[in-house]
Amino acid sequence: MANREIVQQTCIYPVRLAVMLFFSDKGVTMHKGLFSFEEWTLCFVTMLWGLTFLLIRFAMQECGPFYFVGLRFGCAGLLLFCLSLPHLRQITMRELVSGIVIGVIVFLGFGLQTLGLVDITAAKSAFITAFYVPLVPIFELLILHHKPPRSVWLGMAFAFPGVLLVAWPDQLGLGFGRGEFATMICAVVFALEIVFLSIFAPGCNVRRMVAVEAFVCSLLSFAVMPVAGESIQPLPPWLIGCILGLGLMTAVIQSLLTWAQKRVPPSRATLIYAGEPVWAGLFGALAGESMGALALLGCVLVILGTLVSNQKKSA
Fold it and tell me: Does residue 19 lie in a domain region?
């Protein structure tokens, strides 16, 4: 792809994205290149994910995890509710059911990950969660009966070891207890979320479906707070601003990935999502954190895996 074409897509991307997301449920046609418009969208989502990871780490120092998730998704749901207000009467049973199902899955993913973090380190949690990457094409084959092309499997062969290297903890440990088990189930749930989005998203209005999804995740998070020993506490002003910002980003992220996965196969989307720890590492480096040689090698492998999977079948 010529440099001029890349610059052209990058410059017009935000405008076309906003028009598509808030005024139309139809696809956006762009000329063919390295990635489709939907895949560029998922690349943008992955970059935002990497940024939210850094912000969440700061927020967790002052706020309980379920209280934080409830507020974050509650803000996202409220924003999408306001944007969808003129069209709420048109909500369909499919959008309502789809939003509830995906909302429960998102909550389970966050809940299991949080439960696992009680007993294991964040580094080990990230390492185990990375196993969702090879699970997605397997679930795609079993649930959707769609066999990913060989280029995707080849991309997985690069990207999965890359994600493991980026998330490799200093002391991995060989034990497998409650924390490891919960986090492994969390990886399965995240893989199922990606596959189920491809099932439920087509035929749904993105804003209405994601608004339901966000409210369901928020309400479930608040509901389990007493069980988790959390209580509602006053928040410092900087954390309120952080939660509002993350709520906005969550609304954008969940809406964009729901829209894009109407057209991007789950296994292909997963290879793009595998770049999340790469972006997280880059933003962490800007914040003063350091990345070791293995992590840098992992970043290269993830990028190679994404590019390799994009090779079209020869005619």
Answer: no
